[in-house]
Amino acid sequence: MKRSTTVLLSALEAFVIVAVGFGAALVPLTLLWATTFGLAVDFGAFWRTAADVWLLGNGVDVVVRFDEATALSLGATTEAFTLSIAALGFAVLTVLLAARVGRRAAEAGHILAGLVSGVVVVGAFAALLGLTAGSAVASPVVVQALIFPPLVFAGGFLLGAIAEQRRSATGLEVPGLLGDRLANIPSAVRSAIADAARGGGVAVSGILSVSAAVVGVLILADYATLASLYQTLQAGIVGGLALTLAQLALLPNAIVWTASWLLGPGFALGTGTTVSPGGTVIGPLPGIPLLGIVPSETPAVGLFGLLVPVVLGFAVGYVLERRAVEGTWLTTALRGVGIGLVAGVLLGLLAWWSSGAAGPGRLVDVGPDGLLVGAVAAAAVGVPALLGSVSARATNRVSSTL
C-alpha cells in the first residue's frame, strides 16, 4: 500500500473513531431530548454535554460554574470547580479502535505516516469539539483537548502496530542512531528487557482480569441494591438507558479501583474516606447505582486479594526465565525487577488516570493514589517476579547438570 493511501485511510479512520466515541455520548442524550423534553428545548445544550463527556473520558478537564439559581437548588456554591475524573470507557473505546488503525498501518509498512495522520485528525476534531462545547456552565480546557485525545489515540495506535509486527515476526524497527545503539546491547540483555515489558503487561492484564471478575461478582451479589437505587432515581426508560450507558463508561474505572484495592492502597470516594483491605471509611455517597457495590465494611476474605499480584508476579517471572535461552544471573535479576517496574508504571498510570475530581467540596478527591499504587504494584509484582526468575534459573541449572 502506498504511503499516501495509508495517510488518507488513517485520517479517515481517526475521524470515525472521534465520531463513534462522540456519538456514544450524543445518541442517548438525543433520545432524552426527543422523548423527555419533546424537542422543545435547545439541542445545543445536549450537544455541548456530549462533547464534554467525550472529552472528559479522553483526559480533558471540564471547568464548571453554577449560576446562583442552580447552585441554590443543588445546595452548591457559585465558585468554579474542575471535573477531572475520566470516564475510562471512552478512552478504552478510542484505544481499541486506534489499535486497528495501527495494525493496518503496520501491515502497509508506513507506521509513522499513519500515526502522524491520525494524531493530527484526532487533535483537530477534539479541539473543534472543545471550542463548540463551551458554555456559561461548563467549559472544557481546549489546550488539553489538543493534547490528551491525540495521546490516547497514539497509545492505541502504537499498541496495534507493535502487536502486528510481533505477529508477522518482523520486529519493531528503530531507525537512526538509536537503532544502532540498541543493536550494540547484548542479545541476552535485550531479551531480558523485552521479557520484562511482556511480563509486566501480562501481570497487569492478570490483575485487571481478576478485578473485572470481582466487580462482576459484586454486581450480581448486590443486584437488589442496584435495582433499588435505579427505582429511587425514577429516571424513566430513556433516562435509565442514559444512566446505564454512563455507568458502563465508568466500569473501567471501577475495575482499576478494584485492582488498587487488591494491591492494598485502595481508593477514596471523597476527601477523608478510604476503601481498602485495611479498613473502609466512607461518608454519604451520590445515588449512582454502581456505587451500590462498594462494601460498607472490609470483606472477611479481603486479605486474600493481596495474594493476586504476588502469585501472578511469581508465575510470570518463573515462566519467562524458564523460556530464556541465554543469560546470566544479572539478566535474571533484570528480568524479574523489570517485570515489577513495568507493572508498577502501568498500574500507577491507570490509577492516576481513573481518579480525579468528581465535583466540588469533598468530591475533589475520588479514586486511588496513582503514585502509591504504582509503588506498591512495583513491589508486590516485582519481588515475587524476581524470586520466580531466580527459582527458574536455579531449576534450569539443576536440570542441565542431570
Automatic annotation (TrEMBL):
It comes from the Bacteria. It is a multi-pass membrane protein. Its main location: membrane. One of its GO terms (cellular component) is plasma membrane. It is found in: Membrane. The chain crosses the membrane at residues 12-34, 80-99, 111-135, 141-163, 200-221, 241-263, 300-320, 332-352, 372-392. Keywords: Membrane, Transmembrane, Transmembrane helix. This is Uncharacterized protein. It comes from Agromyces atrinae.
